Amino acid sequence: MATSDTTGGTAVVTGASRGFGLALTAALAARGTNVVACARDGDRLAAAVAALPDAARIVPVRADVTDPGGRAALVDAASRTGRIDLLVHNAGELGPSPLPELARYPITALRAVLEATVLAPLALTQLALPLLERAAAPTIVTLSSDAAVAAYPGWGGYGAAKAALDHFAAVFAVELPAPTRVYAFDPGDMRTHMHQLAFPGEDISDRPEPAVVVPALLRLLDRRPPSGRYRAAELAVPVGAGSPG
Predict the structure, then answer these.
(1) Is 152 one of the annotated active-site residues of the chain?
(2) Which of 73, 90, 109, 190 to pair with 67, CA 20 to 30 A apart?
(3) Distance separating alpha carbons of residues 129 and 147, to the nearest angstrom
(4) CATH number of the domain where residue 184 is located
């Protein structure tokens, strides 16, 4: 299995103002990576980034990935570093809260879920490919979910979108030339704003914080196994272990 040191270089992370996106941005910057981070709420993103120890390595960009202008602004910011080594599609849309059954799922809401979770990552990848091609070991990561592979009541819209995104990742993996890697990464349940929206009024404090899950993705990036779908639980870093690798 080939390994790679993913420190340094340039990463693009979408949906980075909180949750897993923010935790990953912080971890990458701490490793010496320059991170171009985006979110729809630019004020929240700027405040979150400013509070990080390695804020100097992070360029916050107010951008909605469903907007062509937002995607262009994000890629333009990354282009100033000359290349993109890592593109992480973390932004997405849950859909209505509480989650409705498919029999009464609003079609307009489903369009928004598909736009943010499937079409926007595809369009952003297309736009970023010239910069990815300049990297020595380009990597694309899409955030998956167990709802993409299992049927849960109420999760039909979100799950269908994540399943489509998984398939896009799989096809990109066979279409893009080596040494590109494309990973669909399933982080599992986390204590995030989106997860709370999925379970309004419920106590989700038993779910792990996103920062606890990030080392699993870093381990995947460092090891650079073949492209595919990977679960955080399979990549967990043993307690007391050193840096992922």
Answers:
(1) no
(2) 190
(3) 28
(4) 3.40.50.720
